[in-house]
Prior knowledge:
Blueprint: H1 4-22, H2 26-44, H3 49-65, H4 68-81, H5 88-105, H6 108-126, H7 131-146, H8 150-167, H9 173-189
Helix pairs in contact: 1-2, 2-3, 3-4, 3-5, 4-5, 5-6, 6-7, 7-8, 8-9
Amino acid sequence: DAEREPLHAAGLDFQIGRAAQALGLMPLAETHLLAALAANEQQLGMADRHTQEVAVALVSLYEMMGNDQQSRPLAQRAVNALGADSDGILRASALSALAMVETNRGELPRAEALRQQVLAIDREIYGDAHPITLSAVNNLANVLFAQRRYSEALPMFDQVLEARRKLYAADHPAIAMAANNSASTHLLTGD
């Protein structure tokens, strides 16, 4: 099984990279995630779900490191590898990674368009009340908020809060975050 060895090694590199990232060992995480990406891309191609997962993790790492010279091209490459007819979950993940990069760069109109695409995909896959869809609504509302479009963000934050109250116990952190977003926006709009 010589063909499987590089993929097995890539899987280990991915796990070590994620663990190193969680421990704050960014250079070590980068080394292992880069190795996993190279092996997966060579064996499976960029459109494969395993390669996409590694690419999104590496984009996230680069963003944590403040390295948008690496994160943006990789995020765009991940999106470009997926056609419009590709798996929706993969596409949403790649688009979300690119939206994160664009948000952090201050490219808010572009981030907004990407977040709208993610939300449309998530709604189609999961429906309106699923936690993944609610996160997509929250992310879009955050981009609108960052653009000072508070009256557009407010109903989205309120929607997320109400839906999360139905899904989680009252002391769940997701409710606290949603309540904070809603309250902050209500204060700014005067509602």
